[in-house]
Amino acid sequence: MKLKSTSAIILIITFFVIVHYSQNKSKDQKKDIAQKVDSVLSLMTLDEKIGQLNQYNDDWQATGPITLDGDKENQILNGKVGSILNCMGAERTKSWQKIAMQSRLKIPLLFGQDVVHGYKTTFPIPLAESCSWDLEAVELSARISATEASASGIHWTFAPMVDIARDPRWGRVMEGAGEDTYLASKIAYARVKGFQGDKPGAINSLMACAKHFAAYGAAIGGRDYNSVDMSDRLLWEIYLPPFKAALDAGVATFMTSFNDINGVPSTANSYLLRDILKEKWGFEGFVVSDWGSVGEMIRHGNVKNEYEAARAAITAGCDMDMESRCYINNLEALVHDGKVPIALIDDAVKRILRKKFEIGLFDDPFRFCNSEREKKELNNPYHPAVARDMARKSIVLLKNENNLLPLSKDIKTIAFIGPLVKELKQNKGFWDVDVPGVDSNFIVSQWEGLKNKVGDKTNLLYAKGCDIEGENKNGFAEAIKIAEQADVIILSIGERRDMSGEAKSRSNLNIPGVQEDLLKELLTTGKPIVVLINTGRPLVFNFTVDNAQAVLYTWWLGSEAGNAIADLLFGDYNPSAKLTMTFPLSVGQIPIYYNHFNTGRPALNDEDRFYRSAYTDLSIYPKFEFGYGLSYTSFQYSELHLSKHKMKHDEKIEVSVTITNTGKYAGEEVVQLYLRDVVGSIARPVKELKDFKKIKLEPGESKTITFTIDSEKLSFYNQKLEWVAEPGEFELIIGASSRDIRLSDHFELVE
Ligand code: GLC
After folding, report:
1. In degrees rounded to 5, what are phi and psi of residue 667?
2. Which DSSP letter does residue 280 get?
3. What pLDDT, in 10s, does the model give residues 244-268?
């Protein structure tokens, strides 16, 4: 007995020594880097300091309006460039880095790239991934992306995009995690952890970048780059938390947004960049502008020329200038004119140098330029398997009349019709990466995925039917002809991959062209029809969903699209995804989101149409609500239990609920916990997501899951922007979606 307790004591002491050592070690490392940064800074001329704040695009691929300098090499040799974006490949990055090593101080370049949902292996677009509600899978997706991109010479990804988006007219909804702040914050944290790994500078990690700071998703009218007009309270409650989550995950950098907030462009918004980010939140990384956004402040009308733009941006806390050239062309004069203190320049330079030291570039500027490693990681067979799993988890089952799905593997003849069936690159969606030397043949088309699944057992017929856009119906006859021979029709329709994304706002959200007309024709055959909808955003497709027997929302699923879709069609994976954006009945319903205020004349149902905040010509309900998604099985919710019904600020309530799989397929359910603060000094939303659990259940299996309610979950920003939990009644809602409420209860927060 004595021996046991002695060894336990030794173990505990050892544990604390290790913890103490590793904490001290990281403090020592931080101090060590700080000293190195200071010593490099002390050697730098003003010119060289300003050079570190200057980021150019490589000559290959632009993600913005590019101006070719022609003498980039010369500027790098003279220490006038700190970073290059859109430069990929171990050899290409090595070539630029070699030039930087010939400069006077040999300060390494940082290579940045939009590795948003994959590098060579392409994962589902981020909005699709968010519908998995699977934080581990989302983190792994970012992890694989970082492994591949870092092997290709890239140090830094301009991701995750963490903008809350409530307006599907905005094309960039495809890049984020939907409309809900709680879920989007969890996903932001997971993505940063995935990209950056456990510690900065690991050879298979990327520096991440929380973007676009801030409130870019609230552009008026859903028109990209448009103004944002909002109260500080709304900014703090809805739009900032995912950025704070990214910061809590240790995100290395932030990127400013193109928009102004209440007339002040984010790129020169000191309230955002200095007061909140660098002071209140203590951010020690650096801030990069978005493409040209420093210079664009002239068009915003906030400054009169590039000289003023540079001054406004650097003063507000924007450390690096992406592609506008305002910093490289004006900062020296601004310092000499006494308009910008050298201390501001030094602070920005130190932030950037610190990151270059942290990821080991001063030790070995070429450590990420290993062609052998690049070849190995870009052909790692594990990666497509992860992409396929993430894709399966991202597909939302919207309708399944008479349990048409899953299809039997003995089915004789399938007619696979539509303009997206045999496409390859379309499946990658927007913000995919065109890796040099890699063509699209490695992508599994929807046609190939089905062929892989059914082999020769099933007769697979194909017709394109029509194009994605245009009025040409000449292909309808052939489509009808093969449909009449089939036992089931699978129709794959939707947008073009670049109809959602940056600068892709749409005034209508219909499925383009004559694709729904094609469906109408196919319905005349009387054959059962499964529709796949490929897109980067919520669309309006009421005819399709009202008339097809089954609908799968397949988004853009990436390089394993075909295999993942086939897995769901034949039941090798049971759909588990749930929508993370509200799907409007019509574009006229926008903005529409689930966590709205009740108002003094709430729209509670479609019957009572008077004196309420609703349209006289439209239902009050969306087509599909936040959190909606079906399964091939069904789930029963029972036995909701609260450990108590009164809690003080420093107490907690344990909530338990039992979920039973009442169907015949194993499946996963996303159990959602919503709260409503019935009375608040600020009106509170009719419900807010405060927790969720995704669980897997075999047929007939039950599991009891628990949630914990603490005062953090009851808190909100009051009129003075204080984060408070106010005493009073709370409604607790357990739902299979924000509208499919299964169980509810009440509790009270007392003084
Ligand atoms: C683009 C995007 C931004 C991206 C950057 C670099 O304009 O707004 O998200 O990271 O430029 O490509």
Report:
1. -160, 170
2. I
3. 999 999 999 999 999 999 999 999 9
